[in-house]
Write a structure and sequence with these properties.
Helix content: 25-40%
Radius of gyration: 51 Å
Structural class: alpha+beta
Membrane topology: Single-pass type I membrane protein
Distance between the termini: 71 Å
Strand order of the largest sheet: 3-4-5-6-17-9
Number of helices: 15
CATH architecture of one domain: Orthogonal Bundle
Largest sheet: 6 strands, antiparallel
Oligomer: single chain
Main location: membrane
Subcellular location: Membrane
Keywords: ATP-binding, Disulfide bond, Glycoprotein, Kinase, Membrane, Nucleotide-binding, Phosphoprotein, Serine/threonine-protein kinase, Signal, Transferase, Transmembrane, Transmembrane helix
Protein name: Protein kinase domain-containing protein
Amino acid sequence: MVVHHYLVLLQLMILLVWPIKASKDLCQYDCGNVTISYPFGIGDGCYFDNSFEVFCDYSSGSPKAFLASINNLQVLDSHVYTVYDSSTSFYVYMIRVYIPVISLKISNLTSSDKGVSLSGSPFTFSRSRNRFTAIGCNNYSTIIKRQNDSSVFGGCLSIITCDPALNPGCYDFLCAFPQNITEVFNAQISNFYSKSIPLECHSVSIVEDYWITSGYLKNPHVLKDHEQVPALLEWLEYKGYCYEEYNSKTTCNKDNRCLIQLSSGYLCICFRETSFDRHHHGYCSGCNSGLGMLFLLIGIWWLCKFVKRRRETKLKQKFFKRNGGLLLQQQSSSNEGNTEKTKLFTSMELEMATDNFNTNRILGQGGQGTVYKGMLTDGRIAAVKKSKLVDESNIEQFINEVVILTQINHRNVVKLFGCCLETEVPLLVYEFIPNGTLYQYIHDQTEEFSITWEMRLRIAVEVSSALSYLHSTTSIPIYHRDIKSANILLDDKFRAKVSDFGASRSVTIDQTHLTTRVQGTFGYLDPEYFGSSQFTEKSDVYSFGVVLVELLTGQKPILSTDTEEDKSLAGVIFSPRANEKRETIFSLRKPKEGKRIIYRGYGLQKGCLNFEGEEEDFLGKKYHLEFRGD
């Protein structure tokens, strides 16, 4: 439902930006090689008002642009040229158009009527960028308002005396631009005195200064060769900031500059990196549409991020439920007061700790999963166990490990820091034990280092201490159910730490056994448990006895022999040859070292491995005391 609301919001944001883009996309931007820029435009709704209307004429073959409101002047360039006028400290804006060249008629020596009137438009002739130019000897060129009008605004008189017989050709002369020529240009040309001057040499026009000066150097008769020449029209003289002078008279937004008053109102000029809004007259849309697009992109990015985060949240909730999070909460609440709460790590915390579960961080892999080394945010070094995918039948087993380890606080049991259940596979965070497993030191010994018999005895004492704690000291007895040398870790001082409680179960005090499907490692399994599926604390003691045999003999629980009875290391202990070949069974690297310990241990491990179900002389606590006695 929330996502639906944000999708509606996104659609509204798109609609806010779309009219600006759509209105521009419907307009024609060029005519031939001329680019049409707003406030000029082709077609309804594409220009500011009628003064800026441009039509594209295709009749001559190649498209040509014309100003519809001013004698159909051909537009050469409708870009807005911004020129700083130092005399007024304002910016002026200009476009380039074609102006007709006025010349004498052949018949009556009067000028042709090709005048240009800018009256009623926002345009004026640029006095600083144009030249009033005439050619020919003995020309008297005057600027008038209209044909046969006696009002003269200015003119030029050529007093050059020239004899066509001696100096054939035309002679240009540049005139000063009259100050009062702003809206109207027309001219009348006559001879100053009668001479046989070619009529084509009697011409006059307003010409772009740069065009006439650059062209004059190449051709002094440049004007006579053209019927029309380029000139610059100024438009929109700057008046000041809208909100300063025209706050009540114009719709210009306050960040724009207000310009001259047109018939339809004030027009605005936009600052840099903004452009005119074709959809809303008087407003700059470049900035608005740019911000609109920016907000739209930010909105899309934020919405995508929101949807992604929400999807991840739902996925984490799904994983949390699938990985037994609800069961963990239920067990934690039922045991409240007796146990400390398990810390729940986030997936991001553990990804950072393990460098996104880099393969270089792998400490080991086993049946329960993969273990990675990592550093937590508080600086502690941890072992992050990434369990394999579990189905519903294994969820209880996994949560059981979490709950049990949370209850345990013993120096010879691996400490659980917390867990993470919001990932695809559940994660357990243990204290990091640096020196590997007891199995490695027993069966993969190197010449550089091997565990001494004193160390073996101490490890046996520490493991028995851990078992005694699990069976008798905790508020609820805990059965490990998978005691083996590979599940006994050694810290930096080679102290034993019992680990991997994946198969552990806790039982009430009045229970004497636990009936489950058989779990454990072959070679360490109690035969009675294997046959009856009834696990007791004595089953852990049996497995501990196998570990003792490993410590004393250096042999693996499963032997590579030809006879079936000698397959199990525990079976060898009870074979008829055990007492006779005791010296050969125990592989001593130093035969004289610790014989008393060896034989004492032999008796204890044999007791662990050979007991009746009802006997109580072989509990882990007793072995712990007997070892301590040595």
